[in-house]
Amino acid sequence: MSVRVVARIRPLLESELDKDIIVTAASNDDRKTSNVVKIPSPKNEAEEFSFAFNSVYDNQATQEHLFTAEVAPHLKSLFQGLDVTIFAYGVTGTGKTHTMRGGLKLAERGVIPRLLSGVFRRAKKITKDSGGDTTVSVALSYYEIYNDKVFDLLEPLEKRTPSGLPLRAEANGKTVVAGLSERPCEELKDFERLYIESNINRVTAATKLNAHSSRSHAILRVKVTQVTGDMVHESTASAIDLAGSEDNRRTDNGKERLVESAAINKSLFVLSQCIDAISRGERRIPFRESKMTRILSLGQNNGITIMILNLAPLRSYHLDTLSSLNVSSRAKRIEVREIENEIVYKQAPRMNSNSSATGMARQPLRPLANAHNIHSGAVAAAAAAESKPSDRPVKAFNVYTDKLKPIPTSRPGANTAIKRTSNTNTQKRISESDGGSRPSKITRPEIPRPTLVPRHAKPSQPAISADLIEAMVEKKVSEILASRTQSAPVPPEVNDEVQKRLEALERRIEDGRHDDTRSEGLRFLLMARQRKERGQDASALKMYEMALPFFPGQAKLIGKIEKLKARLEDKKDGRDMEASDLRDDDEQPVERKAKKSSRKAEDIDDYIGAEADVDDESFVGRKKKGKKSRAVKVAPISTIEDGPSSQDLLDIINSRDVAMIMSLQGFGPKKARDLVDYLELMSEGDGGLIASLTQLRTKNSPANIVRLLIVGRSFWYSEEVDDSIRAEYVHARKSTSIEIAAHGQTSSGDG
Ligand SMILES: Nc1ncnc2c1ncn2[C@@H]1O[C@H](COP(=O)(O)OP(=O)(O)OP(=O)(O)O)[C@@H](O)[C@H]1O
């Protein structure tokens, strides 16, 4: 079966109601449901591109509708032992998190909570229908990939190591995160609690690593284990909220961003390359170039894969939308093998040296000849009896070793089927499970015989350990990336003067922080300016457009928007490649244009020049001089102790008002919502307000929120903050570039 790709076009947001819609859903046959996305050519409005998908959901589609049609039918497969992967892909702000996580209200709940609800419901039914013979347990893992490093979201921040958790290829071909924690969930409420708490972790963790919060992929794994007698059937549902692919297009063109710390961009780029390579039938698929693609293992994993392509209908997303339409329409050509996970036969617990303490008889030592045969009971005893007395005096007993032994092609009696495929109908041999008076031996290292050979694997390759291969690949990738860095154009440095202006604007935002509307508008302006300085014109344009409703009719702001639009148009002309390259071979009868790899050089002087005739957002109006400004300390670290009291912070936190919380630097809509969710959850028991920052900590918030506020916002200071957090903040402040990146990205949507 191919990857199922469905597109979802989000509705216009309130701030976008006057915007131009260019993406529509249609049907290419007479079906009632839509299966085509239509979008005009960026070069010629009269020409329309059509991208066909398995299904297309328009702005009317509810969360329930999407779930019922796309995910619910696969719950059955999950319980039949198939792994199910659902991932949301799309440009920043197109609704991935809305789709996967959704809101708190029942109707707004996204795929993940609905999936869990379905899992628990089905689990109950199975147990009931089996009269209690089958028990189902559910366990959760949740992690993020930030900067190409894996961090466990269920563990406190203190447990994180700078390098994150390693990935490991398992014998069955799956890639797993080594050392990832797993929490059992007995009911939906357990899940909800864990999920909300760990989403807070995600936010905080990202801030700890200095404000790339919206730039992480979040992966939730739901392991379902069904036990009937000694049969254990395990399957996993993975729900993945990929970070926004806002910069993917730019990376694709110039490659200059590939090696930047925002490795998320690289991983999305690698993902699109993997999809291209698979759909072209190439032998080499660059999965290993990013952790996200290794984990996603598109086309390598068995089971069911659903890709939800999130789209914004707006013209301002035009090229980005085309880009993601193109990538995902190729993804639907990827074949996934629908193979159930093997049933594992449960055996007695491992007997270790302490086991005698439990009163169980120690397993007798057996001759070496049987070292890798997993016999038990009579079979093992018979084998031992049959074995000739050895001439060799030493090691006349079984030695457990991690070293692999060659597997004989035919090994009568050898138990290679501790794991059995459910579809071989192999009957469990009585001698293996019931035959002995001693516990069967399950502790022997299992011989890694992949039952499924990855499609492109060469069977005759010499045995190199997975770690070694990984090290070699990583070394190679780093070399390639390093050489790309050297040849890549140097990103524009932010000029001192511009930096001062940004800081001035920042100060004004701080001054206006009690005027929510104004300060939110200013915040968009600040983000716009920062993005503009970094050459992210499209993103800057978006931010300016978002600022406009706060300063309606402001000629200078409108002027800026127009200028940016014009500049983007110019760039577009220099990048015909995108529009043409975005064509889907199947659906687009349009002539493919030659790929232009060059892009107009982006000149920082141009940006500064463009700004010169427009005073620093003077249209927003300044606060009257003399009015006492709040004690906001921008730069000197030595003075941060004079910063505002933690009461300010608490007032905002206790307001539980998403808009108010968003007025804090570092809080986008999602982070703000996370915080509100968290507070709601925390207050379930006592219903009270947060009285001190310490209380946040004692409420198992492991200083996350405080940390987020301090590091993200940079100016808050409280004596309740650890020295370590402060040191972190000081460190962050030392680097202007980090700070700019921080301010630029924290609010850009929280991944
Ligand atoms: N189907 C929808 N119905 C209503 N609102 C939606 C829908 N999809 C998205 N939105 C709203 O659009 C905004 C952006 O959505 P969301 O944050 O989920 O995007 P995203 O793709 O996850 O962005 P990022 O990549 O930055 O994480 C949010 O305010 C969200 O509530």
TrEMBL record:
GO terms assigned for molecular function: ATP binding; microtubule binding; microtubule motor activity
Q: Tell me the keywords, alphabetical order.
A: ATP-binding, Motor protein, Nucleotide-binding
Q: Name one GO cellular component term.
A: microtubule associated complex
Output the superkingdom of the source species.
Answer: Eukaryota
Residues binding ATP: G90, V91, T92, G93, T94, G95, K96, T97
| Keyword ATP-binding on entry | yes
Family per UniProt? Belongs to the TRAFAC class myosin-kinesin ATPase superfamily. Kinesin family.
What GO terms in the biological process aspect are recorded for it?
Answer: microtubule-based movement; mitotic spindle organization; spindle elongation
Biased region (Basic and acidic residues) positions are 571-582
Which residue ranges are recorded for the region named Disordered? 405-461, 571-602
Record field: compositional bias (Polar residues) = 418-428
Enumerate the PROSITE patterns for this protein.
KINESIN_MOTOR_2
Q: Which SUPFAM superfamilies match?
A: P-loop containing nucleoside triphosphate hydrolases
Instruction: Supply the name of the protein.
Output: Uu.00g145260.m01.CDS01
Domain Kinesin motor spans what residues? Answer: 2-334
In its UniProt entry, the species of origin is given as Anthostomella pinea
